[in-house]
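Ops channel
N.P.: pipeline sanity check, posting one input/output pair.
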């Protein structure tokens, strides 16, 4: 027992010294650290809590922070398409990641060429693309959206048919919401998020307790969302919708059908509530670690910074900015 306690103390001390080094480097090198809700708990901790994240948020919230920061350098703890978006909205900054190879199954499911082909197949229809796409793909879109503003953006487009890419499941869920609210239809692409697609009615082990409420991200399969909401109360929506739903619900127990570490934020801000989290983790998000964050911060301003830096061609930034800035008007 004593040995375990000593080991825990040593781990806490080494973690603290890691945070101290990271926070010193952030100041010295004028860096803001943006962390997505899907980061591991140690990367979600804010500086006020003894950690090192300056902002914790969803894709939209972090894009807005990237746009307004005064820091010279942005360190993005998330996945590559998010860091690219930070560079697109703040092209005069240097954007870094602890691991530039952290991808996304959705972003990889579609290319710029695919959008060009879709336009040929459906001439004249607007193309709305989820933010989970790479910069070259964004450059071909009419408008971007995040899970938070997709419904209102679809409503604003001057067409009763819209091409939505790349998430087929998010598209199925949005289709219902958009048809009900705006009487518009979506044409879908066949991409999926490898985390959220795993939430299937057949395999989800929801408690028998009738009072459990469901928290489902837009990216879960449409059948799952439809069936679960027939049986129980709950929400299907963006990360922000999920956080708000829990805040305003009187329920005491929730089932989270989204990335495992979102559960950490929920538990932290709702200590009186219980969360059942099947704990499916995004392998790409988990490529970010404190040790890699330290190494990437150390590299800034040295010969090795290119290993951690996100760069894009100027003409791609220029073209991708158009759909991204349009999206940011809907926050
Ligand atoms: S959770 Fe899904 S959508 Fe998000 S980065 Fe991972 S694979 Fe991509």
């Amino acid at each position: 027992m004593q040995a375990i306690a000593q080991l825990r103390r040593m781990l806490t001390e080494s973690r603290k010294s890691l945070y101290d080094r990271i926070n010193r480097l952030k100041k010295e090198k004028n860096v803001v650290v943006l962390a997505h809700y899907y980061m591991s708990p140690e990367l979600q901790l804010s500086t006020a809590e003894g950690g090192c994240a300056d902002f914790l948020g969803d894709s939209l919230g972090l894009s807005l922070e990237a746009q307004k920061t005064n820091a010279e350098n942005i360190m993005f703890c998330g996945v590559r398409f998010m860091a690219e978006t930070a560079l697109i909205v703040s092209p005069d900054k240097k954007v870094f990641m602890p691991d530039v190879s952290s991808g996304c199954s959705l972003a990889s499911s579609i290319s710029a060429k695919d959008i060009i082909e879709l336009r040929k197949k459906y001439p004249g229809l607007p193309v709305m693309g989820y933010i989970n796409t790479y910069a070259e793909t964004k450059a071909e879109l009419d408008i971007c959206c995040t899970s938070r503003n997709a419904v209102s953006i679809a409503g604003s487009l001057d067409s009763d048919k819209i091409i939505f890419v790349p998430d087929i499941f998010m598209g199925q869920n949005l289709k219902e919401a958009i048809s009900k609210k705006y009487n518009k239809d979506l044409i879908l692409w066949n991409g999926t998020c490898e985390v959220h697609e795993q939430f299937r009615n057949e395999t989800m082990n929801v408690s028998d307790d009738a009072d459990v409420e469901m928290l489902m991200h837009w990216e879960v399969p449409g059948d799952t969302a439809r069936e679960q909401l027939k049986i129980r109360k709950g929400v299907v929506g963006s990360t922000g919708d999920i956080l708000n739903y829990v805040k305003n619900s009187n329920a005491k127990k929730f089932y989270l059908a989204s990335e495992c570490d979102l559960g950490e934020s929920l538990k932290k801000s709702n200590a009186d509530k219980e969360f059942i989290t099947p704990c499916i983790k995004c392998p790409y998000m988990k490529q970010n670690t404190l040790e890699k964050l330290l190494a990437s911060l150390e590299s800034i301003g040295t010969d090795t910074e290119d290993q951690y830096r996100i760069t894009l061609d100027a003409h791609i930034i220029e073209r991708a900015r158009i759909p991204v800035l349009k999206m940011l008007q809907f926050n």
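N.P.: looks fine end to end. The longest helix spans residues 2-29.
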